[in-house]
Design goal:
Elements lengths: L1 H6 L5 H10 L13 H5 L4 H14 L5 E10 L8 H7 L4 E10 L2 E3 L8 H5 L2 E7 L6 H16 L7 H14 L1
Antiparallel strand pairs: 1-2, 1-4, 2-3
Helix pairs in contact: 2-4, 5-8
Length: 173
């Protein structure tokens, strides 16, 4: 990774944050490989923040945590999903979101204009994870959480239908 970072002009931790923050949102070819953010020049909340955690470790940065939070995604905190949720007649849907905490303060570089304050009030839970956990672990945890949540709601959807609505929300972003 050292050579790739140098090739991209990423020689310090602040430069890494600025570089990754400026990249567009988009799913990578392999969700298990956060380094693809560098070669594909795009990433999701998971891949961008997992890569940044790896870079923080590379540069010996202390107090940088990779966090997976579950929040209620709605049209206010995630405006791009408004049409999908309205069409489905769903007010909000739990979404797993990755971000960093640096010395306890959240940093979200998912989009250039990311504003963590928008989702902070809608957070249901959060936990520290490793970069390796942004693929299978995150998806499985999210699905189990969504299944439990669906059981407590009065919605006319099966789990698979609700997951499909969530996928449409993500595609709308």
């Amino acid at each position: 990774m050292k050579n790739v970072l140098q090739h991209k002009g990423i020689t310090t931790w602040p430069k890494a944050i600025n570089y990754v923050s400026a990249l567009p949102y988009g799913r990578n070819a392999n969700r298990c490989d956060p380094t693809l953010v560098l070669s594909e020049e795009k990433g999701t909340c998971s891949s961008k923040h997992a890569l940044l955690k790896m870079i923080a470790d590379h540069f010996g940065e202390q107090d940088v945590e990779l966090i997976m939070g579950i929040y209620l995604m709605d049209p206010v905190n995630t405006p791009g999903v408004k049409e999908v949720l309205n069409e489905a007649k769903v007010d909000a849907i739990p979404e797993a979101h990755c971000y960093l905490k640096i010395k306890g303060a959240p940093l979200d570089v998912t989009f250039g204009e990311s504003n963590f304050d928008l989702i902070q009030e809608a957070l249901l839970e959060e936990q520290n994870i490793s970069p390796e956990q942004v693929s299978e672990f995150k998806v499985e945890y999210h699905k189990k959480f969504l299944q439990r949540w669906l059981g407590s709601q009065d919605l006319p959807y099966s789990f698979d239908e609700l997951w499909a609505i969530r996928e449409r929300c993500i595609a709308a972003l």
